[in-house]
Amino acid sequence: MPTMSAKHSPRHATGSRPPRAESRAQPRSTSAAGEPGADAARQVARTAAQEVRILGGQWRRTPLPVPTSAGLRPTPSRVRETLFNWLGQDLSGWRVLDAYAGSGALGLEAASRGAEQAVLIEREPALVRHLRATVSKLKATTVVVHQADALVWMRQVAAPARFDLVMLDPPFETADFLHTVEAALKALQPGGWLYLESPQPWDELLAAATDRPGAAHLRQLRVHRQGQAGAVHFHLLQDKVEATEPAA
Length: 248
Hints:
alpha/beta; Rossmann fold; two-stranded antiparallel sheet; 8 helices; globular
């Protein structure tokens, strides 16, 4: 796994760090109408941008038109800026997975900042065509777009091909967020980083995992940073398995 300079290394209570690079009392279902997922989906849909811009790196300020698609809500610029401030600014050497690519804003931002490879997964054919056209226009040779179901695809990632960073922004109205994170862990390098957007904070989601078969691994995820933008909670988590120690 790539290493990160001490200057930009996200610090944890236990002292671990990432690879190299640039931000409710009872558990509730996130998929039923009227529940947090559906409510959040309606709120973000009302404010979703029709165009976003890449914020840093070689394609800085490049506009990314947002296709009209039900449920599509690109990560806002302020949240993307926060995420990459948490990580650092340079993703050289990272392998990055954008598992619910949509507009491609997260994965293309990572590629713009030097990721060795950015894999974008999208299920909808029209969005896949849009992503491939954008990648072609940018001449983004380090970006690969796959048309696939993200959960199925992540479960099939073999160990040598696992990622340093997996980014998850699944549909709020239908996603089982813990199920999604469990699948993402199969695609993540030990000690790797996971970015998650959800309608509830991580501790509330995790509270519902007590009796799940994968609960032990979910509890190994450490919250490095978290924030909230409107109805969206966003988190940078680290898999504590074999996490590296920071530079002194």
